[in-house]
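hey so i finaly got around to running the thing on Sugar phosphate phosphatase from Polyrhizophydium stewartii. pasting the sequence first so u can double check i didnt mess up the copy paste, my clipboard has been acting weird all day
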Amino acid sequence: MTAPRPVPSAPLLRGSVVPSFAYTTIKDRLPVILAKVIDHFVRRQHREHIKGSSAAATEDAAATAAAAAEDTAWDDRSASELRRIRDDIAALKYAMARDRPLEPLVAAADASADEATDVALWNAALDELDAAERSWFKAPWLFIECFMYRLLRQSLLATTTWRDYDLFESEKQASLFGSAESILRMASAALGVRAAADRDAAAELIQFSLWGNQSDLSLFVNAKHDEAHKHQISGKDQLASSSSSIIVNDMDAVLDKLAAIRTGTVVIVLDNAGFELFGDLCLADYITQTTECTVVFEGKLFPWFVSDTTARDFDFVVDECALLADKREHDNLREAVARWRAWVASGRWVLRFDPFWTTPFPFWRMPERAPALLKQLSDAQLVMFKGDLNYRKMVHDAAWPPHTPFAEAIGPIASSGIAPFVMLRTCKSDTVAGLRPGQAAELDAIDKDWMVNGKFGIIQLHQ
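ok and heres what it spat out for the C-alpha cells, dont ask me to read them lol
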C-alpha cells in the first residue's frame, strides 16, 4: 500500500485567494514575463530581417551586431519554429488570464528517455490535483509557477532549432553587465587571499550572499538592468545598515557550524545567476580557502524562473568576471577567478544539476521523489539553500502562521536525515515560519509589504 503524501496543516498558497501575492503573480507578473518572451522573439525576427537586408543593416549597425551575437542559426525552419513558439506562448498567456483547465504535457516525437520520464512525472503530479483545482488560479501556486516554466520548456523541445535556447539569457546577461560596479565593490571587500578563518569575514560573506537574493528577475519584471548596481548591497557599510532587516537571524549558530567544519562537502543550492551568483562564489571562495571541503553547487538543468542559474550561466558569470577584472585591472577579482577555474578543474568545486530542482514538488516529497539527492544532501557537512523558491519548497508553500516553529513548517525534512542546513532568503512570497510571537504585526506596522517586496531577509538554520 502506498504511503499517503505528506501535506501541511496550513492551507497551500493559491491564486484563487484574493487579495494575495499568489493572485497578483498569476494575474499580473507571469503574463508580463510571457509578454517579454514574445517581445524578445519579435525583436529577434526583426533583427534577422534587418540582417538579411544589406541596406538596412548599414543603417542599423547595432541591430546587426545583436543578431550576429545570437548563437542560433537562422533559416526557414528556425523562422517557422519561432512563430510556433510565439503562438504557444500567446495561447499560454490567454489560458492563464482566463483560468483555463490545465492540460497534460506532451512529449516531443523524438523525445529522449529522460524527457519522456519527465513528462510522465509532470502528468502524474497534475493527476494528484483534485479535478476542481486543475486550473491556473485554483491550483496550488507553487505548482502553477513551475508548470508555466515547464510549458515554456515543452514548446522549445518540440523544435529542432530552439530546443536548447535560453529564453531569458539576454536578460540575465544584461543584469550582470548592470551589476559590474557592485561586483567590483564586493570583490574589493570580500575577495582577499585568506590565511585563516575569520568569523567577521564569514559573517559579511554570508550577508552578501543573502542580500544578493534581492536581484531576482522573476520578481522585478520591469527592472532597468543598466541601473542594477544602484539597488544592490555590495559594501560593508551597506551590510551594517541592512542588519536590522534580517528578521530571523541565526548567524551566530551558522558561524559556529562553519567554524567546526574542516573536511567533507558543503552544498550550495543556487538560486539566481548574475550578481547573486557572484556573492555565492565569494562565499564559496572563503569556505574553500579556510577548509579542506569540497563545495558542490546545485543548479538548474534548464532555464527556470527567469534568472535561476544554469551551467551556461555559471560559466558566463565566471568568464565575465575575468574580463571585468582585466578591463578594470582589479587584482582581487583576477586572482579569485583563477582560483575558481582551478578548483572546478581539480574537483574542489563541483557543479550538479539534479532533475528534482525543476519539478513542482515541495521538499517534503524529496524522500519519496529524490532519495538519491536526499542521500547526497544528508552526507554533506552543511547545505545552504538560496532564495525564495527554495524556501517556499522547504515549507510546502503553505500559509503558515508566521510564529509557526520552523521545524514544524519543514515537515518530514526535519527527520529525513538531511545535513544541517541554512536558508538564505529575501522574502518575496507570503509564506514564512519561525518568527517570534507578535513579530509579524510589528513588521506590518513598519512595511505592509514586508513578506513580498524583497527588502527583508532570513538566515534560518536547522540542525
